[in-house]
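Note to self: user wants both folds in one dump. Writing first protein now.
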Amino acid sequence: MHTPAAPAPAPTAHELLGSALHDEVVAHFAAKPGAPAASVVTHQVRECLRYLYLVSRHPDRLGGLFLPVEQDIDEIWHYLILQTHEYRDLCEQRLPGGHFIHHRSISYDAYQADPGRETAAEEALRWIPLYTAAFGPFDEDALPHWTVVRFLHEELDLSLAQIAALDVGEQTPVPGAA
């Protein structure tokens, strides 16, 4: 009987961007007035690349959904998009889907009004099992950057282990949610 091989681990931010561009992005955002420490910016870059990795790998399940990450991650994505050659190479050659990932800005209020609050919440929760399958459980360094995960942790008092174990299919309610 043949046992299927475990999936290869997802590439790191350094592997996806290359060290030069990775270090450039970190330096750019760490040098802004009032910026967090370079170590925090490094985690922001990591989470931005994880977001793009998931969108690339699961376009059928995540394409067109509202960005479930904080503004700092979106700003890093904007910066990467402006590096047009490197961004195209990232999307088409280094990310698993092999296709260009487009960006469209829309406010949370406008998004929530269109599909409705319940649909917006379900779509935000859809990211959790895909993230944990690719990268393992959310850690303390990822937590500040994923809006729904931070909400579940801080407002509903779920541990990171409980969040990682969530089955967010249509039939399964989120513990503590009303």
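First done. Writing the second protein, which came from a different request thread.
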Amino acid sequence: MAADDYEGARDVLRYLRDAGRQRIATITGPEDTSGGIRRLEAYRDDQGADLNEALIAHGDYSKESGAKGMRELLDRDPGIDAVFAANDLMALGAMEVLHEAGRRTPEDVAVVGFDDISASSASTPALTTVRQPFERISEEMVRLLLDVIGGKRPAAITIPTELVVRESA
């Protein structure tokens, strides 16, 4: 049971491209988590033959790692015009670094996160993000558990995500 990390990330990247962003970087989640793996996989697939490893920074889902990743990305390529962070805390850390560097969000650099935590709508600017339907995931987990208890075989279910467009991108 999981949200569709891959398609959620692809939605972000399509949205950024449709908005005219051309130098899209990413700050990954941990590569030992399914979300971290699938979101990075979506980024790599989106970039295809144009993949530039210098536009990938690695994080651990903490705000601090988002800030560190953003500093690394700006050092490597000051022309970045968008960043997709694998979660909202890292995106919020990235926005702080952009502000400190004199970059405006979203005018200079669009920022998008993933999860839609409560701080996302309260940030300045409000963070564009991918909403995971946690309530539906919980409901499906209970249903699947009851099915297993009732003797049915376990099923794998992937729940669609939703792009929530706010001010940061």
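Dump finished. Worth passing along: The first strand starts at residue 2 and ends at 3.
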